[in-house]
Structure formats: structure tokens, C-alpha cells
Design brief:
Elements: H1 2-15, H2 25-30, H3 33-47, H4 58-71, H5 90-105, H6 110-119, H7 121-142, E1 146-147, E2 150-151, H8 153-157, H9 159-178, H10 187-214, H11 222-247, H12 252-279, H13 290-293, H14 299-307, H15 310-321, H16 328-340, H17 343-366, H18 373-387
Antiparallel strand pairs: 1-2
Helix pairs in contact: 1-6, 3-7, 4-9, 5-6, 5-7, 5-11, 5-18, 7-9, 7-10, 7-11, 10-11, 11-12, 12-17, 14-17, 15-16, 17-18
Length: about 400
């Protein structure tokens, strides 16, 4: 068994491409895309026969699996296959890069670092499937009829089936995690990693609970909002980098630093969206002041509510209470209130704080180790991309 595993590792390592260009986000996301896509397909294929379907229901259960694949972007609404996978795979990429960095910090050579990334693929698959399970349930809870310009699962097949499909995807995520054993990760380490995953899933649910609880409330503070996005958005990125680092044989301090990096990076990504969602919406192909038009709660709006004069707070309350899209005049008034209260500056300041925390944790985790330099540069490129909004 060990000889087969080592032969497989060597084959994968030989086929991995190293890149000298580390300055773009696409370079980062492309590094392990083929490896992760193959891992995702292998995990879902392995899940099909796992429950030994009976001949009488095999065709129906095949539809169950294909509907999950539709959500992942692998199939059309008629369940016919598509040839491309549109996902960015950001979170699983973080898993593999963290594994590379930790292995490099420990002095591993190029082949050993790439082998560490290969071993971490099932953890990357687990993270990606958890992310997608949460999206299925979010779409139901938020009533969203489209995702990635396609009908959502519940819109096509109803809420009860979509809930069940999300639960099935969550089970497949755990199924993927146990595949770490097939890549040589010790059982005791897998159990510890599973505890990280369970804690993260609870945080995700808590974050979604807070997000739904905040809807329609005028007493949500900036501190409350930051805690919510820390659970709903940043927790899974923290889990991603922690899982990868521990699979890469990180010591306790390096593992904790990589978790800190992932959490701060996740916070920064959300705060970047908060800024762009109001002041750069048109550049993203959205209508101007897009988040205000949709009455989407974000840090700039909460800051304005907390700091505006009473009359202006009433204006913001009126905007968010309207069932229909607000008029351009009301939006202009709201944008003026945000400017007067320094809402954009508050959000960019919070973004800069998270970027600084992430950069410090990443630098300390790499510790100037030459063998960790490439993974460090790739992760730093992601951070620089997020930081551009606050420049």
C-alpha cells in the first residue's frame, strides 16, 4: 500500500507545474486548479457507490448525484454534462498553499513541498464542498433564485429537495476528509482535522443565524457585524489555511499563525466587498451603489447609522424599510450621509487593519525560510489584491 502511494505521489509531483510568476491572482488560483478539480471529481465519484444503491432505485439516486453536480457547475439544468468547471476554488487553493508553506518552513525540498500539496487535496475538497453546502442553504434562506447566473437548486427542484441535497453535499465533504488516510495522513491527525472542520461548520451556522437575525434591525452595531462576518465568511478561510498547514507538518505555532492569516484574509475579502459594493459597483458590472439599491447591510451602512444625525438616521431607516427599489434621489441622499459620516474611510480602515494582521501572521509563519518563499509570495499576492481597495 505504501509503495503504491509513493508511486502515485511521484507521478503527481512530476506533473505539477512550477511558476515563476507570482504577481497575479490568476497565477495563484491556477497553481493547483487541475489537481483540485480532479480531487473533487474523484470524491464525488467515490461517493456514488458508497451506499450500495439497489437496482430498483439506482436511476433515481443517480439523479440525486447529478443535481449536486449541477450546483457545482458540472451539469446543465437538464442534467447534461458541461465541459468546464467555472469555480475559482479559492478556499481549497488556500489549503494546498498552506501545506506547501508549512512544509517549506520545515525545510522540505521542492518535491516534498509538492507532495505535501498532493496529500492535502482531500482537505481542499472537503473545504470546497462545505462552502457549497452552505451556499445551497443560504440560497434557500435568502430566497435567491439565481447563483452564478443560473437558477438555484431550490428554484429548479423545490425547497425540500434542495435542503436534502445540501445535507448530502455536507456528508460528501466529510467523506472527502477521510480520504486523507489514503494519502498517508495519520489517523490521529485526521481526527484532529475533523474537529477543526466541525468547529468551523458550527461557526458558519452561527454566522448565518446572526446574518438572518440582523435583517430589518436598526440596532446592529459595527462590532456585531464584524463578529458575524468573522463566523460566516472568515471562519472557513481560517479553517482552510489551518488544515493545510497541519497536513504540511506545521508545528503548533505555525498552524495557529496560518489560521490567523486565513481568518484575517477572509475578513479583508468581505470588507473589500463592502467597499466595492457601494462605491465601485459599476466597475464590477453592477448598478451604481448596488448594495444600497438592494438594501444590503454592510459595515459602511452600519457605521453611518451609528454616527449620523437623527434626521439622517431616519432617512437610512426609510431606505431600508422600502419594499421596492429606492429612487435615485433617495440613493443620492443616502450616499451623501455615508460621505458625511466617513463611512467609506471607516470601512477601508477596517480593511487595512485586517490586511496588516494577515500580513504579519503570514510573514511570521514563513519565518524567512527560503523553502517557504514561493508559497509565501503566492499567498501575499492574494493579500495585495485585497489591499488595493484600501490603497
Amino acid at each position: 500500500m505504501d509503495s503504491q502511494r509513493h508511486e502515485a505521489e511521484e507521478k503527481v509531483v512530476a506533473n505539477l507545474q512550477s511558476s515563476d510568476a507570482v504577481g497575479t491572482v490568476e497565477t495563484v488560483l491556477a497553481r493547483h486548479r487541475a489537481l483540485l478539480t480532479a480531487g473533487l471529481r474523484e470524491t464525488l465519484a467515490a461517493a456514488r457507490p458508497a451506499t450500495l444503491p439497489a437496482p430498483a432505485t439506482a436511476a433515481l439516486l443517480e439523479t440525486f448525484h447529478r443535481q449536486i453536480e449541477y450546483h457545482l457547475g458540472w451539469r446543465q439544468a437538464d442534467l447534461s454534462a458541461v465541459t468546464t468547471y467555472p469555480g475559482k476554488l479559492l478556499r481549497p487553493t488556500l489549503v494546498l498553499l498552506a501545506a506547501e508553506l508549512a512544509a517549506g518552513r520545515a525545510g522540505a525540498g521542492p518535491e516534498q513541498r509538492q507532495a505535501a500539496a498532493w496529500r492535502a487535496v482531500p482537505a481542499g475538497v472537503c473545504v470546497e464542498l462545505i462552502h457549497n453546502f452552505s451556499l445551497i442553504h443560504d440560497d434557500i434562506e435568502d430566497g435567491d433564485e439565481e447563483r452564478r447566473y443560473r437558477p438555484t437548486l431550490w428554484k429548479l427542484w423545490g425547497v425540500p429537495q434542495a435542503i436534502n441535497l445540501g445535507d448530502g453535499l455536507f456528508s460528501m465533504a466529510r467523506f472527502g476528509l477521510w480520504q486523507l488516510a489514503e494519502r498517508g495522513v495519520p489517523a490521529t491527525a485526521i481526527v484532529r482535522l475533523a474537529a477543526v472542520v466541525d468547529r468551523t461548520c458550527l461557526e458558519l451556522c452561527e454566522g448565518q443565524y446572526l446574518d438572518m437575525t440582523f435583517e430589518g434591525r436598526a440596532d446592529v452595531t459595527a462590532a456585531m457585524y464584524l463578529d458575524m462576518i468573522g463566523r460566516k465568511t472568515a471562519a472557513l478561510m481560517a479553517s482552510s489555511t489551518e488544515l493545510g498547514a497541519r497536513i504540511g507538518d506545521a508545528d503548533e505555532r505555525t498552524g495557529a499563525l496560518m489560521a490567523e492569516f486565513g481568518r484575517a484574509l477572509g475578513m479583508a475579502f468581505q470588507l473589500r466587498d463592502d467597499v466595492l459594493g457601494i462605491w465601485a459597483a459599476s466597475e464590477l458590472g453592477k448598478s451604481a451603489a448596488g448594495d444600497l439599491r438592494r438594501r444590503k447591510m454592510s459595515l459602511p451602512i452600519i457605521h453611518a447609522r451609528e454616527n449620523a444625525a437623527a434626521r439622517d438616521r431616519r432617512t437610512l431607516t426609510r431606505l431600508f424599510a422600502q419594499p421596492q427599489e429606492p429612487s435615485d434621489a433617495l440613493l443620492a441622499e443616502a450616499l451623501t450621509i455615508l460621505e458625511q459620516t466617513g463611512a467609506r474611510e471607516r470601512a477601508t480602515e477596517a480593511l487595512r487593519e485586517q490586511v496588516a494582521l494577515a500580513r504579519r501572521a503570514l510573514d511570521q509563519a514563513a519565518a524567512d525560510a527560503a523553502a517557504a518563499a514561493e508559497a509565501h509570495a503566492l499567498l501575499a499576492a492574494l493579500l495585495s489584491f485585497v489591499a488595493e481597495v484600501a490603497a
